[in-house]
Amino acid sequence: MAQPLSTAIDTAFKSNIVPDQEYLLQGSILDTSVEHLLHRLRGLCDNVDSGPEQFQDHEMCFTIRTTPTPLSLRVRRALDHTDMPWQLRYIGQPEYGDAKRPTIIRSSIDIGCSASVVEFLTELGCRMDFEYLARGYMFRKGRMKITVAKIVKTNPNKSQDSMQLISESYLVELSVLAPRGQDAIAEDMRSFAEQLRPLVNLDKVDYKRLAHGPP
Amino acid sequence: MAYSVNVAIEAPIENQIQEIAYDGTEVYQQPLSMSESLSKLAAKIDFGKGQDEKEEKVVDKTEEDAKDPAAYQSSLWPWDSVRNKLKNAFTEVCVLSDVLAIAKEKRYLVLDPVPQEPPETKAMVTVYARKKALGGAATVLLTGAERLRTSQSEAARNRAASDFHIELLALRKNWRLKKVGNSIIGDVSYRTAGSKFASSGMFEVTKAEEEPSSGWSPPQSPSAVAPPPKTPSALRVTLPSELQGVAYIEVHCRKDDEALFSTTVTSSTLNTAGPMPDMHWQKKLEAAQNVLFCKELFNQLAKEAVQLPGPIPHMVVGNQIVASILPGIQLIIGLCHSTATKNKKSGPPQQKKSDHDHVLEHSIHQLLREVHHKNTHHPFPHPSSGPLGPSKQRCLAGPSAVDRHELMEMSKSKTLLEQIIEQTQHFTMRRRTEYVLDTIAKEVRDPLIISHWNSINSPTKACVKVNIMTHGYDTICRTLLIIHVGKKSLKCICRDGSVMNMSYEIQELRDLLICQIQQHQITAVQALAKCMGWQLLSNNTHLGVGEVQQMGNASSCMLASPMGDRLIAVRCEPQAGVHVSIAHSPRKDFYPGQLVKDRKWENLGGGFKEVRWDKMEGKNFLNKMELLMASLTSSS
């Protein structure tokens, strides 16, 4: 306990106990059927006796020009829990792997911070790339976190009531933060995702392919 | 008849078909002629039919008679046999009429009724016959009954099967079940509710087969009343032996001096009725779940008791945990588990069960439930992309730059045993405080001591407001004390704002209260004097003169009448009570002496005389003081 802080963190990283890997599955569901999905999640997940947990987050993505690829950082805050700290998060490149790998794995490092983080990042030379609001529900099943959220465009000029929806569907994400090398959880995620079929098809979504694919 | 119509009847033209040729032509029979058909019909008449053998002889005779004519006429005449028969008949009728005529005369022949021989009635035969008939009827009835019974049992068997499924459905609604192979396995453990107890709570569900109702039970005396009919459940749950029976956690406090008794009492098993073997499965499972819960609780407490460092180490012996909470007082937590077999051999009834503290038992249960709840109810992260797990405090720790010490404090948590010890300490303190307040209120009638317990309290903190006042004078003066009852200490906030911290030794509180009572009396007298127009000359709460008090100090005050000619001195001692003295000024009688020669010195007063307080009129101290002041107040 008496060792310096930097050494402690190094030891933690070396012994592989820092949960810096995010296992992720994504999917979407139409607004009309989201009720069914919520019902099913209520049945499957832990402790929904108090009802599903709602959230409303605001996310801003900042980029800074570095070589060879620009680095992006995400700042997120809870609009409905203003007393909670903001979150600064780095998300690495997703690894899709082969067909045998059940989930996307990407490195994820997050830290709580205060509201002045935006100013700080701007001072560093970051530029805001995009921002959006996410509104929806959160569920928990063991270590797994399931979010069912609606993505809303922000409009700084107008009040929050007149928000523009991006699409007529909800984004469904199943994620676990775990230390490197815990692939067993990925199998659990796959089997859980199986239980949500055919309401929502949670899968490894490759955005680059989506962007270049047929419209 | 004039209009009668002739109806002609004739045989159909169609004759009987004799044969049909191969080419289809039908060959008809020729119709019989009139005579032919007559003779054919006559031949059909059988005149001898219906006659007895007796007439046979006649016939024989007539045949003999008819032989000769028949010999020559038979070939000639087809009606011969008819004629013979008619002739015979005629002869017989003639003979009969002759006989009748003779009999009518009653001279030669008398007709007597033939005596009917009574049918032989054999008793045994009739009995046998009736028996046989009755037996036949009985078999019919029995077979009918048997058929009904089989159909009913068939229905019952079908119902039992459906009952099993219905009950299984009901079981599934409340308990976790899964199918393993051909058997149905259930789980009564609290694992899904956050328990981390390793012991499993598996049970097996089987279909209850028909069993002889009194197969295992001891033979009943013939006079025994039949047990009330029960509808046996179609479902049976089989529990492992360690989950059978009834268990509970026994909690009680014990003073050191009764240690010898209670050890023996608590170590024996409980005397509650064991579960009946044919208990309903719901009750059985609930009991098993309770057993499991109690075991987990005891296990956890025992683990903590061993690990917890303390000035006096806690002891875990068998199914008991002994923890000392205050000097001389121990908390004993015992796991009582009785199975049906143990229950039978349980000894004499235990009379010290009243020691068991239900409130503490409930608190202990509640503490473990809280742990379970915390294990499953982690806070959700906000914003939603955050990691699951850290509490809100931990989330805020980073941005608010919490230092190492605060982080360490954050991670500290009290064990169940520590919490229950604290609760017990508080419970003991509260009981002691109650006792002191009650006994003082009982001992001291003047002034009145009223205590109000705050209804809002926590398991380790309570608050009582003590009001000291004199009956009838409560508007003039009242002394308020607030006593905070903590875990091992008391904090008393007095009327003047001073805070007294006291230890668990309850004598301290008692002393404080007695001092407060005396101070109340002095304060009240001063307030009363103000009302009466008397003047307060001096006031001393801690008087330095007089004999030394056992505890505290005497307090006093000096009052002067409105005219200034009378003085009252009051001295309150915590133990000895109140002394009141009065003095006159100027003195009524003045005698010049060697030192005091001048009359002007008479205004000095002096020469206090003590009032015999117990002889004074008045209900209480203030009332007596009021009367005394009133009597000493001169109008001029």
UniProtKB/TrEMBL annotation, chain A:
Keyword Transcription regulation appears in the UniProt entry: yes
GO molecular function, one term: transcription coregulator activity
Organism: Frankliniella occidentalis (Western flower thrips)
Job of this protein: Component of the Mediator complex, a coactivator involved in the regulated transcription of nearly all RNA polymerase II-dependent genes. Mediator functions as a bridge to convey information from gene-specific regulatory proteins to the basal RNA polymerase II transcription machinery. Mediator is recruited to promoters by direct interactions with regulatory proteins and serves as a scaffold for the assembly of a functional preinitiation complex with RNA polymerase II and the general transcription factors.
Assembly information from the UniProt record: Component of the Mediator complex.
Family: Belongs to the Mediator complex subunit 18 family.
Keyword Zinc-finger: no
Pfam families assigned to the protein according to its UniProt record, in alphabetical order: Med18
UniProt subcellular location: Nucleus
Any single Gene Ontology cellular-component annotation: mediator complex
Gene it is expressed from: LOC113206391
Keywords linked to the UniProt accession: Activator, Nucleus, Transcription, Transcription regulation
GO biological processes: regulation of transcription by RNA polymerase II; termination of RNA polymerase II transcription
Protein name: Mediator of RNA polymerase II transcription subunit 18
TrEMBL record, chain B:
Compositional bias ranges of the Pro residues kind: 219-231
Region annotated Disordered, chain positions: 208-232, 375-396
One Pfam family linked to the record: Med17
Compartments, record wording: Nucleus
GO molecular function, one term: transcription coregulator activity
GO cellular component: core mediator complex; mediator complex
Matches recorded under InterPro entries: Mediator_Med17 (IPR019313)
Keywords: Activator, Nucleus, Transcription, Transcription regulation
GO biological process, one term: regulation of transcription by RNA polymerase II
Tagged with keyword Transcription regulation: yes
Function in brief: Component of the Mediator complex, a coactivator involved in the regulated transcription of nearly all RNA polymerase II-dependent genes. Mediator functions as a bridge to convey information from gene-specific regulatory proteins to the basal RNA polymerase II transcription machinery. Mediator is recruited to promoters by direct interactions with regulatory proteins and serves as a scaffold for the assembly of a functional preinitiation complex with RNA polymerase II and the general transcription factors.
Family assignment from sequence similarity: Belongs to the Mediator complex subunit 17 family.
Subunit structure: Component of the Mediator complex.
PANTHER family: MEDIATOR OF RNA POLYMERASE II TRANSCRIPTION SUBUNIT 17 (PTHR13114:SF7)
Protein name: Mediator of RNA polymerase II transcription subunit 17
Originating organism: Frankliniella occidentalis
UniProt gene name: LOC113212780
